[in-house]
Write a structure and sequence with these properties.
By secondary structure, the protein is an all-alpha fold. It has eleven helices and no strands. The protein starts with 10 loop residues before the first helix and ends in a 12-residue tail after the last helix.
Length: 196
């Protein structure tokens, strides 16, 4: 995929930043490049990362009774979670230290020290990878262990789940990984965001 030729996509208008940090991020060239990257593909028919982020932000707004601090955290995660896909290593074998979640975390460490935000940004795809790994005969190179994921995000499990749900219920993503997560993870409070 190549960066979109639409360098004039009005990110402020599309994403409606609410905090000073959100506004700052949208002025940074590497952040802008990432939000303007992408083309329609399976799971992301919307194409550009910015359009996907807009869908995730809309889902966050649908979460009932969400505390203000958690909403702010989820928005920050949404803005940054896929923004470094353009810089991700796509070679084989894959260098997982150059996964877009890891790159986004490293970038965001300069702007926040919130472990919930940073850990969820880094591991936001790992629930999907754990679902892949749970399937019989799976040999997917990105497969992860659910036990390992829960050990990693246990301190922020409910927020992780909320983000995973808001991220998964976008585009034309298959919902099987989310249903599997909700069925197999103890300690999360089920939340309805969208009807699928």
């Amino acid at each position: 995929m190549i960066p979109s030729p639409d360098a004039h996509l009005p990110l402020d208008t599309l994403l409606q930043p609410e905090s000073d940090l959100e506004k700052l991020l949208l002025t940074l060239p590497e952040f802008q490049q990432g939000l303007r990257w992408g083309e329609p593909r399976f799971g992301h028919p919307e194409g550009l990362v910015a359009y996907h982020v807009r869908e995730v932000l809309e889902n966050i707004d649908l979460i009932p009774n969400l505390p203000t601090d958690d909403r702010a955290r989820l928005r920050l995660i949404a803005l940054s979670h896929d923004t470094f896909k353009y810089a991700e290593d796509r070679g084989r074998p894959r260098d997982w230290n150059r996964h877009h979640g890891v790159l986004a975390r490293r970038f965001m460490e300069h702007y926040t020290d919130d472990p919930f935000v940073l850990d969820i940004i880094e591991t936001h795809d790992d629930a999907y990878y754990a679902w892949l790994g749970s399937r019989p005969g799976c040999t997917a190179p990105g497969a992860r262990s659910l036990v390992g994921l829960l050990h990693r995000v246990g301190h922020c499990l409910q927020l992780y789940y909320l983000f995973f749900k808001c991220d998964t219920q976008t585009g034309d993503k298959v919902q099987a990984s989310l249903k599997w997560f909700e069925k197999n993870v103890l300690g999360i409070e089920y939340v309805r965001v969208r009807e699928w």
